[in-house]
Design brief:
The chain is α+β, with helices and mostly antiparallel strands. The protein is built from 4 helices and 3 strands, in the order βααββαα. It has 2 domains: 36 residues; 32 residues. The protein is elongated, with a radius of gyration of 21 Å. It starts with a strand and ends in a 15-residue tail after the last helix.
Length: 90
């Protein structure tokens, strides 16, 4: 395992992240312990729970509320269509 201090890793963090993605054992020393860099899978089915602490029921309610908010904003003319073209970015 390649073990780095925070200072050593900070300047080339992108490099060390790429190394970890390619299977290298990379660790950072932090408060006397080694913290390993490892890729992890993010599962969309539990993302809201893991990231925000929302149950499936709470997420469904949030989805309905957000959808209604977007629909109302569109009706008021407060949104701009996104086409993916360069002119979308001002």
């Amino acid at each position: 395992m390649k073990t780095l201090t925070i200072t050593e890793g900070r300047g080339r963090l992108g490099f060390w992240l790429k190394q970890a993605l390619q299977g290298a054992d990379i660790g950072f020393m932090f408060e006397g312990k080694v913290v390993a860099l490892r890729p992890v899978e993010v599962y969309s089915s539990d993302y809201a729970l893991q990231e925000y602490g929302l149950s499936a029921h709470e997420m469904a309610k949030a989805e309905k509320r957000i959808g209604a908010d977007i629909k109302a904003a569109r009706a008021r003319g407060e949104t701009t269509p996104f086409t993916g073209g360069g002119h979308d970015f001002h």
